[in-house]
Amino acid sequence: MTYQRKIPILDCGHEYVREILYGRWKVPLIYYIANGVSRPGELQRKIPHASRRVLDAQLTQLVKHEIISKTVFDETVPKVEYQLTEFGLTLMPVMMAMIKWGNNNIEQLKRVTR
């Protein structure tokens, strides 16, 4: 049996972006991978409040959505690395604009989200 979405995605670009970025740790994961953090253990250390299970699930979703790629090295102890895809690289200007906006408005954002 295949998964059937209960609530359809509206056929709007922002709905698809939301679908891809929805998840507490996806934006930080993309940011760290873009900045050279490629191993799961390194990502876990950068985002210590996230459980490894949740990080793995969100990394899997980002691979499925072709934002990042996963390379498994066939060694005695298997090694995994993540990289941004060409498609994922096109997301970086958007993410950097979001980060800049957040940093420029951090005090108000803190106040209104408490």
Word description of this protein:
- The chain has 114 residues and is mostly helical.
- It has one domain: Winged helix-like DNA-binding domain superfamily/Winged helix DNA-binding domain (Arc Repressor Mutant, subunit A, Orthogonal Bundle), CATH 1.10.10.10.
- Helices cover 55% and strands 11% of the residues.
- The chain has 7 helices and 2 strands.
- A two-stranded antiparallel sheet has the order 1-2.
- Strand 1 (68-73) and strand 2 form a beta hairpin.
**How widely separated are the two ends?**
42 Å
Q: Element order, helices and strands?
A: HHHHEEHHH
- Biggest β-sheet: strands ordered side by side in the sheet: 1-2
Main sheet characteristics: 2 strands, antiparallel
The SS-based structural class is mainly alpha
Q: Examine the coordinates and then state which fold CATH places here, giving the name of the CATH topology.
A: Arc Repressor Mutant, subunit A
**CATH class call:** Mainly Alpha
Mean pLDDT equals: 91
InterPro entries: HTH_HxlR, WH-like_DNA-bd_sf, WH_DNA-bd_sf
Protein name: Transcriptional regulator, HxlR family
Domain HTH hxlR-type: 12-110
Pfam family, one: HxlR
List the helices and strands and how they pair.
Blueprint lengths: L12 H9 L4 H9 L5 H7 L5 H13 L3 E6 L5 E6 L1 H4 L2 H13 L1 H8 L1
Antiparallel strand pairs: 1-2
Keywords: DNA-binding, Transcription, Transcription regulation
Protein name: Transcriptional regulator, HxlR family
GO molecular function: DNA binding
Note the main attributes of this structure.
mainly alpha, 114 residues, globular, Arc Repressor Mutant, subunit A, two-stranded antiparallel sheet
